[in-house]
Design goal:
This protein has about 500 residues and is α+β, with helices and mostly antiparallel strands. It folds into three domains: about 5-280, no CATH class; about 305-450, no CATH class; about 455-490. It contains 20 helices and seven strands. The chain has helices spanning about 10-25, 45-50, 55-60, 65-70, 75-85, 90-100, 105-120, 120-125, 130-145, 155-165, 175-180, 190-205, 210-225, 255, 265-275, 285-320, 330-345, 390-400, 435-455, 455-490, and strands at about 30, 40, 250, 355-360, 365-370, 380-385, 410-415. Strand 5 (about 365-370) and strand 6 (about 380-385) form a beta hairpin. Helix 9 (about 130-145) crosses helix 10. It is elongated.
Length: about 500
């Protein structure tokens, strides 16, 4: 049902319901310089301030503008925009942008807008006999002047102009959807305002409203009935104070009883209860800094762990490089314990080449256990070989030719009973790994290829001489051709 179709008798009930519905949405508070001592202003207080302002087109003259501008014009602007914000229109960032406008800039812009509006005051007061084209031009011109201020868009300018002239209409989301349909996206653009204002002027005439503010009040109360299930105080968070921004929003429920308010579960529930309440869930600057510090600390701990692992791997590699390294087998029990510990860390069965187990140490070394059957005795003998991990082998491949690695693995044999096999000495001789020979061959091949590609200094000198001779020949040929042309022209 459109606003202009509402009968005059039913409008009184909507006006009463409007006051009750505003109280349901009065949990948020707007705090700035003049209201900081009172803990901020809620929506019901700002609503009284907004509707108590008189139209300047009826009571003002050009000479009375300076006396009006002596007051705090920045506060006047913030009260108007804050009223529209707390009702669900606009963004919280707009309020912080409004604080950047000084009183001096606000006075200059207000002076221009008011003087422009008062030139056509006689044509803006009569709603039934107005010229729609002229009214749209005047209102658009006044709003464009107000848009020179920071944080003031089409919607915010319409809220200011609606308080100045009876023909001025606030472009609220509720009135836009009532006149243009519920499927229309409420955007803060001039194109939408032109469509909206044409329909609004028609509804203003047809419904015989006294002003645009009265029509907008009825439309808002139609969208927000007074018989709501629960007020917003039960849904709003206990206390929200975003630091860093000049405008601070808090909840009234926090002052009455701390901790009684239930937190909002998601943005969707906040949007359902109040279209503006979901903005309160945005993180403050202090919370973001705290999270960034925690993330940096975690990153440092991770880097320290990685560096400690790399250091342990490098120590194992350096120990294996030493020529005098020997592995001494004290008893078969120690070998059994080491095998049990290795089985806990991991086990991969391999059937190729007689490999059964491939166990990785935490330090980065690999152990391969190979079973070999004896012809003389039925008991199988297991030999273990300790090698450096693949990462260390890749690092060694990149190293220079001067590095000659020491023996990198050791072999020892044990029987199935756990006792060590008979050997001449307790220490086992160490040999050079196979990967080093392969790396040396690859490096030698690469050096040979580079030597083939290289050219001696004599070859470079010969090539330079040939190139110079070719250039000289080309220059001589050009000179000859020029002389021949000149002789022909003379002849």
């Amino acid at each position: 049902m459109r606003v202009d179709a509402v009968p005059a008798a039913q409008r009184c009930t909507y006006h009463v319901n409007y006051c009750v519905a505003i109280k349901h949405h009065s949990s948020q508070r707007l705090r700035f310089s003049s209201y900081s001592h009172a803990g901020g202003v809620n929506l019901s207080q700002l609503d009284k301030i907004y509707y108590s302002r008189c139209n300047i087109t009826k009571s003002f003259r050009a000479s009375s503008i300076p006396s009006f501008l002596r007051k705090k014009t920045q506060q006047y602007l913030i009260e108007n925009v804050g009223w529209s914000f707390l009702r669900g229109a606009g963004n919280r960032q707009i309020l912080s942008l409004l604080q950047k406008n000084s009183n001096k800039t606000c006075r200059a812009v207000f002076d221009r807008a008011m003087s422009f509006l008062l030139l056509h005051a006689s044509q803006l007061n009569d709603i039934q006999g107005m010229d729609e084209k002229l009214v749209t031009v005047v209102m658009e011109g006044c709003m464009r002047i107000l848009c020179d201020l920071q944080g003031v868009g089409v919607r915010e300018a319409s809220a200011v102009v609606a308080a100045w002239a009876p023909v001025g209409i606030f472009m609220s989301d509720e009135l836009v959807k009532n006149l243009l349909g519920a499927e229309v996206k409420c955007e803060n653009t001039w194109e939408l305002w032109n469509l909206f204002y044409k329909e609004a002027l028609i509804a203003l005439k047809k419904g015989r409203f006294r002003s645009g503010r009265e029509m907008e009040k009825v439309a808002w109360s139609m969208m927000h009935p007074a018989t709501e299930t629960a007020p917003i105080e039960s849904v709003a968070p206990a206390e929200i104070k975003p630091e860093g921004s000049p405008v601070v929003l808090t909840s009234a429920a926090a002052k009455t009883s701390l901790g009684t308010a239930a937190p909002i579960s998601s943005f969707q529930t906040a949007k359902e209860t109040h279209p503006c309440l979901y903005m309160l869930q945005k993180k403050s600057k202090k919370q973001r800094k705290r999270e960034a510090k925690e993330q940096k600390a975690k990153e440092r701990e991770r880097k320290i762990k990685v560096s400690s692992r790399a250091a342990s791997i490098s120590t194992v590699a350096m120990a294996s490089r030493s020529l005098n390294q020997q592995i001494v087998l004290t008893s078969g029990a120690t070998t059994n314990k080491s095998h049990k510990q290795n089985k806990k860390l991991g086990k991969k069965e391999k059937k190729e080449q007689g490999l059964e187990n491939n166990i990785k140490y935490k330090s980065g070394a690999d152990i391969e256990v190979i079973t070999i059957s004896d012809d003389e005795s039925d008991q199988p003998i297991t030999t273990a070989r300790c090698e450096i991990s693949k990462k260390q082998s890749n690092k060694r491949k990149r190293s220079s030719d001067s590095f000659a690695p020491s023996p990198a693995y050791s072999e020892f044999s044990t029987t199935s009973d756990g006792c060590s096999s008979s050997s001449s000495t307790s220490s086992v001789s160490l040999g050079t790994p196979q990967w080093w020979y392969e790396a040396e061959k690859k490096q030698s091949k690469m050096l040979k290829e580079r030597r083939k590609r290289r050219k001696s200094t004599a070859d470079w000198i010969e090539e330079a001489k040939k190139a110079a001779a070719e250039r000289n020949e080309d220059a001589d040929g050009r000179r000859r051709s020029k002389r021949i042309k000149a002789l022909r022209e003379q002849a």
